[in-house]
Amino acid sequence: MFEFLSVLWFFLIFVLIAGYFVLDGFDLGVGVLSPFIARNDGERAVLRRAIGPVWDGNEVWLLTAGGALFAAFPNAYATTFSGFYLAVMLVLFGLIVRAVSFEFRAGDPGWAKLWDGCFFIGSLLPALLLGVAVGNIFAGIPMDAIGDYAGVPLLGLVTPFTLLTGLLGLAMFLAAGAAWTALKAPLGSELRARAVRLRVPLQVIALALFAVVSVYALAIVGTEMDPALSVLRWLFAALVVVGLAASVAVGRFRDDDLKAFLAQSAVMVALVALLACSMFPVLVNATPDSVGPAITIFNAASSELSLTWMSIILCIGLPLVLAYHVIIYRTFRGRVNSEDLTHY
Fold it and tell me: TM segments (predicted)?
């Protein structure tokens, strides 16, 4: 039972990460794209309104993933959050700055340019650094005998591979942001037209980066992977490629913004699933020169009692969270119109 719960929570944490990657991904993408596709205050207000009702609820998935990692695999939580301390603080700084700028922008027009700049920076930092962090846990970090990070803070975490994974994550967020903007901007508007024009190049860039990261991971990083999951890895890799192609096709040739966004979201879920299948059963890989071993679900899991109670809480809490999202997205469905911009 203990091993089953450990495996279950390994994949459940990746489910939570996928939820954040999809839901807050387009929020961050909209924020990073905002200086480049919004040409006036009216268009910037449309972007803020497009994510305004949902962005804070979307961040719940990141907080839940961090809490689940702490409760289920405390050793992995301790190593990642202490080793990546400066990077984590920069991500939190970005999320805080984004929230503050978002709330202050409408009520403080005299500082509009400052808040718009903060909105961009606060979206860019998490969008880039989260991918860098993922690259590190996959490629491995130097660890001492007790499992603590033994490298140089921040600078030791930046390598060609982790930069590529950071850029891949950023490209996925930007493509999702463009797809969401195209879905929410008024029909016939210049804002939607710019988002549609950006959507395909960003998806092509994301596909190219995915290919480069995959080759780099297999040929140079050489992280060991569970052979039993090789079929699933190939399946999810194929879904990433097919999903991007489908998003391009339905968006460009059928002009269907909803299906283009859903296909882009499916790609992001497949990418996280590919990462999970490539990592299992490892939570944080160790570099070859590490004194300590890699952190796995078998040497980092908490007690069976803790995992059992977490599973019970999940069965109660997850339906409530999903119901909340269904209500919010259904309530604010449709494109943004002039009547929606009163408070933005």
Answer: 6-38, 83-102, 114-141, 161-183, 204-222, 234-253, 265-286, 306-327
